[in-house]
Fold this protein.
Amino acid sequence: MTTKPPIPPLGYKVGILGGGQLAAMLAEAALRLGLRPVVLAKGPLDPAARLVKDALYGSYEDLDLLKRFLGEVELVAFENEFIPSELLHKARHAKTYFMPELETLRRLQDKISQKRALQSINVPTAPMLVLPEGGRVQPWLDEVDREYGSRFVLKWSRTGYDGKGVFLANDPVPLSSRRELLDKFCQASLERGGTVFAEPYVPFVRELALVACQSTNGEFKAYPLVVIEQPGGVCRWVKGPASALGVDPKLEREAFAYAKKISDGFQLQGTFAVELFELKDGGLWVNEISPRVHNSGHFTQDAAVTSQFENHWRALLGLPLGEMSTHPAFAMLNVLGPANAAQKHGWKLPPITARLHLHWYGKADLLPGRKLGHINGHVRKIEEFAELIEEMERCEQGWIDG
Ligand code: ADP
């Protein structure tokens, strides 16, 4: 494990691999702490590139560019876990601290090795059937059919996000009538150098998430457990704390214990998210771990004392973690590009009210389904929560209609 870097001087350069909204919010938090964020973005219009003085543009697959970027900074944080760890190994300098470490990234960036690693530390997750290496898809689909019937989920092992790379089958349609579609889905992953695995469809009661933080100084803390709503695999709502919304507080303790086990088992550093399924029998299964700041933690910007982004830097620099308590009830709504996004011109700001907070990413293209921003809201009493949710819905609808 890397030893923690010493507390740096003001203006210390920190690297952020990525230029999207997570990178932008990490950059904002870094600037507030007196750090100097350097981003590797695709281009100058990327959300993070618009905020910082120091940005390099291009693809991380360009090894020379990646080396140049890593030459500028010592400490590197990630916006996502897609960059192959082998590439980062090749490009790293003697003094580069990757947080999390590349070995951790390697184990987590492939969903199959992530699930195996979870099993090895006795953290429950859905069972899986992996397409064997060099295996043929059709006979394997027969096995999926025998094992799980018509309700199953196929997943790409790598590079999936927001439901891309996930095929959900949760109806009585027999697998045999989807063969062509499933074959295409599997081939797309194989062409990208990954493979595919299947899980049974988990008839969960709710999806939950815990955002936690492991500091290089040894401290470990978590924000309250939250309820997440992800129709079609894309996060729409985060609501919490879960314990105020009818989730048994024992599940929060259980999720916290899993997060600690995961943090220790994988030697995580900084903020990370654990997404979970609440099962009908009252148990929990971990669906996925993200070793970085995460959409399910955006509520922390306005509803918690310290945001997940600030705590990420505090953790990576070995500073004391900021307070993680929250308002009594809060919600986050992702604003996705509506169906008419491409045709409409002259979009106005969403009509936020006094208790809502808008976080707009400034993406150049307003494409349907794209995450364009999010709205945070919180209330002083749980009795006001339903009203808050309606207010947030009205705000988004007002924006679409206006
Ligand atoms: P991504 O990498 O796109 O976030 P996930 O594995 O988190 O992929 O899956 C996206 C969503 O698909 C989940 O939030 C959940 O709603 C649904 N999902 C994933 N796996 C299963 C499963 N085994 N059973 C039921 N729903 C699932």
Summary: The mean pLDDT is 93. Residues 126, 153, 155, 160-163, 165-166, 168, 199, 201-202, 207, 230, 233, 275, 287-288 surround adenosine-5'-diphosphate (CB under 6 Å). The longest strand covers residues 206-214. The chain has three domains: 13-99, 127-200, 206-401.
